[in-house]
Amino acid sequence: MAKFSKKRGKSSPAISTASLPDIIFMLLFFFMMVTVLRDSDLKLSVNTPEATQLTKLDEKSLVNYIYVGRPTQQYQQVYGTSPRIQLGDKISTVDDIPLFLEQHKVKLPEAKRSRITSSLRVDGEVTMGIVQDVKTKLRKSNQLRINYSAGKRAGEIKN
Amino acid sequence: MAKTKTRDRMNNEINAGSMADIAFLLLIFFLVTTTIAEDKGILVRLPPWSDEDPDITKLKERNVYSVLVNANNQLLVREEPMRIAQLRENAKEFIANPRKLPNMAESPKNAIISLKNDRGTNYETYLAVYNELKGAYDELWDELAQKRYGEPYSDDMPFAQRKAIKGEIPMVLSEAEPTNFGEEN
To answer: Is this prediction's ipTM beyond 0.90?
Structure first.
């Protein structure tokens, strides 16, 4: 008798939610690890043009980025308003490109080095002169796989 | 009496129910702020650097599709002005030459596209032109792949098939050293 009353007296225990935060934290950490925060903050305003014949770049570690554009408002006093090149997080000149490429290259295993791609993120408004200088320097440094970074164009071409 | 009360309080757990809410809040914050940026673009292979000027006098004029872009972003294609919107169709016709016209490429294998721009050309225009020229080849590859293997050209195709198609219609795009008439600073 006592046994029965005892059982009935205990209300069914609530499911412990104490481990829920752990699970959520696990998710949180997963997302924090997976997401790559923009590694270099842009000192240039870069608005890449749009195109249709796009290829996806798959292996991120094999890509180095070269930005070309005009300095943003806050950097205009230091760097002027004419188009500049940014490598990593520094405003550089064309002559810094070989060193930049080399620094990226040494971090990679030998077998993968032939697949390194340079992604040119160039503002649409920039003229070809500076882009041409970059291209010439890349050719001289024997970095021949390049990618003109562009967004997807949905509609018809205007011109 | 008081003693039992304190012991009761000590047995009480800290309510961890709200912990999940806090963690959720953080989680949602990270989900919203992070953009998984994927990089897309037009993949190009540059020619290796050589100090000598390439010799183009050997080429027959009918095989060369010359595209000039000036500092005002205007196009001159085979001595005639053209708009970018027409470029793709025109280039396709030149390369494939379906009617065997005497002023167009002898065969797709012989066709050469020569692109020359000015240092003052807008990058946007340059890329649009490049995109159209690449698009012309992509469409020709697609058509050939469709005819031969019944599927559009893609990177998932067997290597041998891709090689066969690219052997039939090789993409030869040569870029000349740009002129310098209109560079701004």
So the answer is: no
